[in-house]
Amino acid sequence: MAALLNLNPKAEIARQAQALGVNIEAAKGLQDVLRTNLGPKGTMKMLVSGAGDIKITKDGNVLLHEMQIRHPTAF
């Protein structure tokens, strides 16, 4: 890493900014899914597993666990 900084001192800053951008986009995606569940007029979501099992839920926690999201922002 030190060699990279000697060649390009702004490389680490660019990587941090890129990682931040990826995390922000992931959080916005989660927000879009979960926003409609909130409040008294929240909508139900239907989740279908690979085996064909169907779950209908309004609970954001269940959605996050059942959606098999692999991004660290979701955890």
Automatic annotation (TrEMBL):
Keyword ATP-binding in record: yes
Highest taxon of source: Eukaryota
Database matches in InterPro entries: Chaperone_TCP-1, Chaperonin_TCP-1_CS, Cpn60/GroEL/TCP-1, GROEL-like_equatorial_sf
Keywords associated with the record: ATP-binding, Chaperone, Nucleotide-binding
SUPFAM superfamilies in the cross-refs: GroEL equatorial domain-like
Gene3D superfamilies: GroEL-like equatorial domain
Name this protein carries in UniProt: T-complex protein 1 subunit zeta like protein
Organism: Argiope bruennichi
